[in-house]
Amino acid sequence: ERLYEVYGGKKFEMLAVNVVQAEAGNSVRSFLEQHPHNFPVLLDDKGVVQDLYQVYQYTETFIIGADGKVVDRIIGGRDWASVAMLKGFSELINGK
């Protein structure tokens, strides 16, 4: 959320994709209603994005450059609001 607050709309887009079974989608929707996000959260109940990016572990993060190519693939959680992460995204956005 903090990362999106800092960089959202500045040559930066953020999407969350939740890989769920179709029947679990209502639980996810309920959670999102109770804990809204400022960025889009998409449900991949058919596994299309999961297959496309070969996601086999959770949580996985893909950093995708302006050219549409994967810049980095990160497995596991991170403190996305840390000074180091914010600096890294700033450099990526500004082409440094």
Spell out the key features of this protein.
96 residues; alpha+beta; Glutaredoxin; two-stranded parallel sheet; 4 helices; 4 strands
Summarize this structure briefly.
This protein has 4 helices and 4 strands, in the order αβαβαββα.
Descriptive notes:
The protein is an alpha+beta fold and 96 residues long. The model has no long low-confidence stretch (mean pLDDT 86). A hairpin with a 5-residue loop joins strand 3 and strand 4 (70-75). The longest helix has 11 residues, at 83-93. It has a single domain (2-93), classed as Glutaredoxin (3-Layer(aba) Sandwich), CATH 3.40.30. Helix content is 33%, strand content 18%.
How is this fold's topology laid out?
Layout lengths: L1 H6 L8 E3 L6 H10 L6 E3 L4 H5 L7 E5 L5 E6 L7 H11 L3
Parallel strand pairs: 1-2
Antiparallel strand pairs: 3-4
The proportion of strand residues reads: 15-25%
Number of distinct beta strands: 4
Biggest beta sheet summary: 2 strands, parallel
SS content category? alpha+beta
Mean pLDDT: 86
Q: Note the run of SSEs as H and E.
A: HEHEHEEH
CATH class term: Alpha Beta
CATH architecture: 3-Layer(aba) Sandwich
